[in-house]
Amino acid sequence: MQLPLRVAQRAGPSLQAQIFEQLRQLIADGRLKPDMRLPPSRVLAADLGVSRNTVVLAYERLVAEGYLEVRQPVGTFVASAPVFEGFAVAPPAEEAPEAAGLRRSARLRLRGQAHVVRSPYEHPVRYDFWVGRPDARLFPLRIWRDAIRRLLPEMHAGHSDYGHPAGLPALRQAVADHVGAARGIKTCADEVLITHGIQEALSILARLFVRDGTEVATENPCYLGAARVFASHGARLTPVDVDDEGIDVDRLPRDAAFVYVTPSHQYPIGATLSPQRRSRLHAWAARCGSYIVEDDYDSDFHYDATPLPAMKAEDEREQVIYLGTFSKSLGAGLRVGYMVLPRHLVADASCAKALLNNCSPWYAQALLAEYLSSGAFAHHLRRVRTIYRARRNRLIEALERCFGEARIAGAQAGMHLTWELPRHFPLAAELERRARAYEVGVYGLATGNALVTGPVAEARFERTVMLGYAALDEDEIDEGVARLAQACRPSQPLGSSRAAG
Questions:
Q1: 382-414 in b/e burial notation, b at 16+ Cβ within 10 A?
Q2: Are residues 308 and 181 in the same domain?
Q3: What pTM was computed for the model?
Q4: Which of 96, 312, 443, 453 has the fewest Cβ atoms surrounding its Cβ within 10 A?
Q5: Distances in whole angstroms, Cα of residue 355 to Cα of each of 50, 169, 208, 322, 366
Q6: How far is the C-alpha of 171 from the C-alpha of 364, rounded, in Å?
Q7: Residue 188 and residue 116: Cα distance in Å, rounded?
């Protein structure tokens, strides 16, 4: 396939930027259709007379912004979902001519691709090892109902006016107390901002720090939702590889506005950032004048050792922005998260929050404030932690029973682990397909809300499967892994009678 691209060595945009912009425009104009395959980077580089790395970097930026997607092991394709930038689509034929003219002339200002955090499959499976989903059966319903009854008489007052964009004072104080006790963070209510989950917190950060071309460092692989938010505001993403000790701090760029990290349980691989690298990361921020954005993903669930304090707990220079959520401990539908900010950023962050919405719902904040302050949340975490530990153990036992010695990572914490498939197994994408025929959901990184950047990382993780265990009981885990073992047998026909049972 010959692409109509022209690049030139001249002052102004780099070769990479020229390739990126021309491909982006071809997609926005509809000349490159969804699901169309692009030439391999080596082929396009030869056609244009540029280095392969120049094309790879342009492709990676287009992937990060949602224009392209990598489908292992086939190649790079125009994304299936529409990208929210460019001219509006042509109107239906029956639309009035004047309306059609208005629609064609209206420039959509949103960039990037919307990110929906949910299982990618339309029809659910019986044994779904989806990542990050708590068990709804463990929700403290009775305690929640009692709290609602107590708060009902006050609801008329809470509903009559807008609240402060930073959140209900009682909840801000309860969160400050919680992170102090659980994560070692010395803070106060004035430094806490309540959000609609982590995604809104990421949007606030992007509004504060990101302009076109702002360099932002991310883990590689990283949480896809974060990368898309930053890219949609014009960030130039710099992926930094992770290993068993977390992000490789020595490879961080000097000019990044901030680095986004998940040090407690790296998403998606599950590594815990080592104490030595935490110290070096603080030193990098001090040396470069950059911020550390600490998404304390999965910090509520540590099983084998006392968890390390949050990086925010050691923030002597006020350069760490801490993000937390109740989505994993209580449920994503609650939509309550929080930021713990350096004091000098609180006012600006509150203004950015007000641009997104005036305030979070009073009743959810009031309920959660009481739940935290009463000690019931701490009790709930202890109970759930015990149950999830047993489920993690059962999953590891089942994998080893069915597949022999399994190469597992990230099991020390969180609600999921990763499994590196043996060499004689199919790749993760193929295993996903086979497993679904047996009513089992397992996920490679691409379908598990992770972004993997670069051919080296893609090759490294093409055999990595994510298995969430929190929402399945021990019997369901056993049956799910047994069915997965059937799916992995080449001699076993897909869609056997057992799968239909």
A1: eebeeebeebbebbbebbeebbeebebebbbbb
A2: yes
A3: 0.77
A4: 96
A5: 43, 20, 12, 21, 23
A6: 10
A7: 33
Q: Is 364 in the same domain as 385?
A: no
What number of CA atoms fall less than 13 Å from residue 272's CA on the CB side?
20
The tokens of 450 are what?
């992770």
Query: Residue 78 belongs to what domain range?
Result: 15-108
**Contact between residue 269 and residue 242 where contact means Cβ atoms under 8 Å apart:** yes
Residue-level pLDDT, tens digit, the chain, 501 residues = 678 888 887 656 778 888 988 898 888 777 888 888 899 888 898 888 888 888 988 888 888 777 888 887 778 888 876 554 433 333 334 444 454 444 444 334 445 555 555 555 566 889 999 998 989 898 888 888 888 888 777 665 555 567 788 999 999 999 999 999 999 999 999 999 999 989 999 999 999 999 999 999 999 999 999 999 999 999 999 999 999 999 999 999 999 999 999 999 999 999 999 999 999 999 999 999 999 999 999 888 999 888 899 999 999 999 999 999 988 888 777 789 999 999 999 999 999 999 888 777 788 898 899 999 999 999 999 999 999 999 999 999 999 999 988 899 999 999 999 999 998 888 998 999 999 999 999 999 988 889 998 888 888 899 999 999 999 999 999 999 999 999 988 654 444 433 333
**Shared domain check, 394 and 364:** no
Q: Which residues contact 156 (CB under 8 A, 6 or more apart)?
A: none
Rounded-to-integer distance, Cα 66 and Cα 228, Å: 7
| 10 in a structural domain | no
Q: Are 462 and 369 within one domain?
A: no
Phi, psi (degrees; rounded to nearest 5) at 484: -60, -40
Tell whether 155 is covered by a domain: no
> CATH code at 449?
3.90.1150.10
- 26 and 52, same structural domain? yes
Find out whether 417 and 409 touch, Cβ atoms under 8 Å: yes
The burial class, CB within 10 Å (0-12 / 13-18 / 19+), for 332 is: middle
The answer to whether residues 207 and 355 touch, using CB atoms and an 8 Å cutoff, is yes
Task: Report residue 390 as tokens.
Answer: 């047993």
User: What residues does 70 pair with on adjacent strands?
Assistant: 76
Helix, strand, coil % (nearest 5) of the chain? 45, 15, 40
Residues 201 and 173 placed together within one structural domain of the fold: yes
What token pair was written down for 98? 């004047």
Structure tokens, 166: 């930073």
The answer to whether residue 3 is domain-embedded is no
Q: Do 320 and 388 lie in a common domain? A: no
